[in-house]
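Propose amino acids for all 219 sites.
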């Protein structure tokens, strides 16, 4: 049984096919339910882009657990220079073969070498959109990888808001969408129930799962 645990902001702990994965682990975010000391085991750490609220404590986590750091090449090289032993510096394009899992770095529209990531295991396929605007090629992500679970920013100002995230869901057609990157600080205040309403109005079947920081969605 796998799960996604929201750690506040864009940070998630993922258990997929018995691997423990952290995505954009800014563990010192104001809503985080855990501290860096609480993390003792990890197999992979993914970082979507180099903004501090996504890079977070990823390098510390990789160093203390021996996890493999996976990101776009330039960020992976910085992690290596900072002392991370196992890094995979990849890029947007085709499959990145991990031990039993496959990852795909996909485009995102934002600043700071932005990407999203698709992580495909036997149990499910997850798309973490990173920080991004909505873009038409989310339909291509759907066509190529059919993610079952989409993690989408809804806070506005720096990323999509709820109106744009509803359009993203229309393009991605995931079974489940989990909103993120909102209510961390006042400028990205959003009401995730508005996303549920908009998705219903569009007649889409995607289930919006609203987590509180520390809560898990099991799959
Ligand atoms: Ni950013
Ligand atoms: Mn951000």
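Proposal:
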């Amino acid at each position: 049984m796998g799960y996604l645990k929201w750690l506040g902001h864009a940070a998630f702990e993922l258990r997929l096919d018995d691997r423990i994965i952290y995505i954009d682990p800014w563990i010192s975010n104001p809503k985080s339910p855990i501290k860096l000391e609480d993390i003792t085991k990890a197999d992979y750490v993914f970082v979507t882009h180099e903004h501090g609220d996504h890079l977070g404590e990823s390098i510390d986590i990789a160093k203390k657990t021996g996890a493999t750091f996976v990101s776009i090449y330039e960020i992976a090289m910085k992690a290596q220079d900072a002392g991370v032993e196992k890094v995979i510096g990849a890029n947007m394009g085709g499959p990145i073969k991990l031990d039993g899992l496959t990852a795909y770095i996909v485009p995102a529209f934002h600043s700071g070498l932005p990407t999203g990531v698709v992580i495909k295991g036997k149990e499910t396929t997850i798309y973490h959109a990173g920080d991004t605007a909505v873009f038409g090629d989310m339909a291509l992500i759907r066509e190529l990888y059919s993610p079952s679970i989409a993690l989408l920013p809804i806070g506005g100002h720096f990323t999509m808001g709820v109106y744009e995230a509803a359009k993203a869901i229309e393009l991605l057609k995931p079974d489940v969408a989990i909103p993120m990157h909102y209510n961390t600080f006042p400028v990205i205040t959003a009401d995730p129930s508005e996303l549920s309403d908009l998705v219903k109005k569009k007649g889409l079947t995607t289930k919006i799962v609203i987590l509180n920081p520390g809560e898990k969605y099991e799959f």
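Residues 3-212 form a domain with the Metallo-beta-lactamase; Chain A fold (CATH 3.60.15.10). The longest strand covers residues 102-107.
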